[in-house]
Amino acid sequence: MPATTIHLVRHGEVYNPDHVLYERLPDFHLSDRGLRMAQATARYIAEHSGINHAAAVYSSPLDRTRETAGAILTALNVVRADRGEDPLELHTDPRLIEAGNEFRGRRIGHGSGALWRPENLRLIRNLHKPTWGESYQSIGRRMSDFAYEKVDQYPGQQIIVVSHESPIWSFRHLLETGHPEHWMFLRHTALASVTSITFDSDTHELLAVAYADPASSVS
After folding, report:
1. DSSP-assigned letters across all residues of 126-191
2. Residues 5, 11, 13, CA angle at the centre, nearest 5°?
3. Tell me, what's the pLDDT at 7?
4. Measured between alpha carbons, how far is residue 189 from residues 8, 65, 73 in Å?
5. Angle at 90 between CA 84 and CA 95, to 5 degrees
6. Mean pLDDT per segment of 10 residues, for the chain of length 219 residues?
7. Which of 35, 36, 173, 203 is the most exposed place for a label (fewest CB within 10 A)?
8. pLDDT given at position 151
9. Predicted pLDDT of residue 139
10. Are the beta carbons of 104 and 25 closer than 8 angstroms?
């Protein structure tokens, strides 16, 4: 039975001194610590005898995910070169992008905080749906479309996919519970973590979910 594993990597920490919700805005890059986190996860992948045979690397089109993927490719291609293999290149896919959010560009939890202003209360009336932006159903559908397409494209292989907390967790929750809606404060998707999801390549049946946090000690 061939199996395809998709390793979903969350990007590293972002440089955000003004504490705004950067959502899909351009020019939000990894911080110095975020780059070290990406490099720690890159080393973990390069040293992992299974993952370092990945057939492709994909990412969201945003700066922070492409930079994280770049660190992974740098480490991975050294291993590939030692094996006499051609280097991998980065592919971006809009289905992997951050969840849409009506609070983009605003400060949420600092100072007066846009979240608590009376005119914004309509956006937080349902934390489970959520009502402030793209629904978890929408996120789950686009992530599923991407994942099952890649399972068919890479039967019996592994790929690395760099995305964002909400898409990764919504998709995992959909696979494990049958629905993508979840309580956002209970997500288990640390910065630069790796959520590995294995499917039967023929039937798309979920076979296993594993989680690693290679950057947990990065300061």
Report:
1. -TTTTTTBS-HHHHHHHHHHHHHHHHHHSTT-EEEEEE-HHHHHHHHHHHHHS-----GGG----T
2. 150
3. 98
4. 10, 15, 21
5. 140
6. 96 93 91 98 96 98 98 98 98 95 64 56 58 85 98 98 97 96 89 98 98 97
7. 203
8. 98
9. 95
10. yes
Query: What is the torsional sign of CA 79, 64, 14, 161?
Result: negative
Q: Give yes or no for a contact between 66 and 92, defined as CB atoms under 8 angstroms apart.
A: yes
CA atoms within 13 A on the CB side of 171: 32
Taking CA atoms, 75 is separated from 44, 130, 157, in Å, by 9, 37, 19
β-strand 56-59 against 158-163: which pairing, if any? Answer: parallel
pLDDT at 176 (0 to 100): 97
Instruction: Single out the residue of 164, 159, 219 nearest to residue 193, CA to CA.
Output: 164
Distance CA 69, CA 135 (A): 26
Identify the pLDDT of residue 108.
Answer: 67
Eight-state DSSP code of residue 30: B
Q: How far is CA 78 from CA 53, 66, 84, in A?
A: 12, 18, 10
Task: Give the strands of the sheet with 3-10, arranged side by side.
Answer: 90-92, 56-59, 158-163, 3-10, 194-200, 206-212
